[in-house]
Specification:
Length: 290
């Protein structure tokens, strides 16, 4: 029961962050500045609750810091793309494209960490690829016009998959060396530094508005816990179960939120894509306990 509570909490945080990012676009706030404050809040919160870490050998910490740095760069880049896609493509479709990226960490769990994946779940992987195609709007122009908003969905798929995979790598290989709070603190610290460098090259720090600071802080805590609860669930269940269940609940929750609160509309193929989203993750659920 406990791991499923973690899964539900991770999904709930993901949907809440999607709602806040939609609000950010609605208010026309500067996305990069909001995300920078978000990572500052998440990093401070992570280090605050982690306490003083034990002294570790440099050889042990180096690969962890490198993994955190790579993850941090992907996190902030993906969040920026995510925010834009939520505004252009809607909450439900954007989160669905992100969640179908479960293919990447599921394959990592199966092929690299040798977690069991039955035929039923391999069918789910194939359905997930088909679903991604259905979710992309205006497919005829996708390859014709560079910068078309449909590319945002493809980038969300790839960046989210890599970012989620970093959490699995940490849980499997490094969770016995440093606490997950400390690892996430380094991830968010890297994202913060990238955000600050990018922001300062474009705008002075004094241009941060109180609305951007407040919204960034509000996003920071659920952003931290969406990753924290996912890692917690991975300590109990296989990646196939955790990633698919989190993705399922996130897609359903974000779709309901987008239609009910933000008035998002879906075409027939996208409704079919969401139906295949549910089917694909149901097929993928069922891996043996870790």
């Amino acid at each position: 029961m406990l791991p499923w509570i973690y899964i539900l909490m991770s999904s709930g945080c993901t949907v809440f962050v999607a709602h806040l990012l939609k609000y950010n676009e609605f208010k026309k706030l500067n996305t990069l500045r909001v995300l920078t404050v978000n990572y500052a809040a998440a990093a401070c919160f992570a280090f605050l609750i982690s306490g003083i870490p034990p002294v570790q050998a440099a050889a042990d910490l180096l690969p962890i810091l490198l993994l955190a740095a790579v993850a941090g760069v992907f996190f902030i880049a993906n969040f920026f793309i995510y925010s834009k896609s939520v505004d252009r493509n809607g909450v439900g479709i954007s989160v669905a494209a992100m969640r179908i990226s479960l293919i990447i960490p599921v394959l990592l769990s199966t092929l690299w960490y040798h977690e069991y994946l039955p035929v039923r779940q391999w069918a789910g992987v194939l359905f997930a690829f088909f679903t991604l195609i259905l979710l992309v709007p205006d497919k005829k122009n996708l390859l014709k016009r560079y910068g078309h908003t449909s590319w945002l969905l493809i980038l969300l798929f790839l960046f989210t998959g890599v970012g989620d995979s970093s959490l699995k790598i940490f849980e499997a290989d490094f969770s016995g060396i440093v606490a997950k709070e400390q690892f996430l603190g380094f991830v968010f610290l890297t994202a913060l530094l990238v955000g600050l460098m990018t922001t300062c090259t474009r705008h002075p720090v004094s241009e941060f508005s109180w609305q951007e600071v407040l919204l960034g802080i509000t996003i920071g805590v659920p952003n931290f816990y969406s990753a924290f609860f996912l890692i917690e669930a991975l300590t109990f269940l296989t990646g196939g179960v955790v990633y698919t269940a989190v993705n399922l609940f996130s897609v359903i929750g974000a779709t309901i939120l987008g239609i009910w609160y933000w008035g998002d509309s879906l075409n027939r193929n996208q409704w079919l894509g969401l139906a295949f989203t549910v089917l694909s993750v149901f097929l993928l659920v069922g891996a043996r306990p870790a």
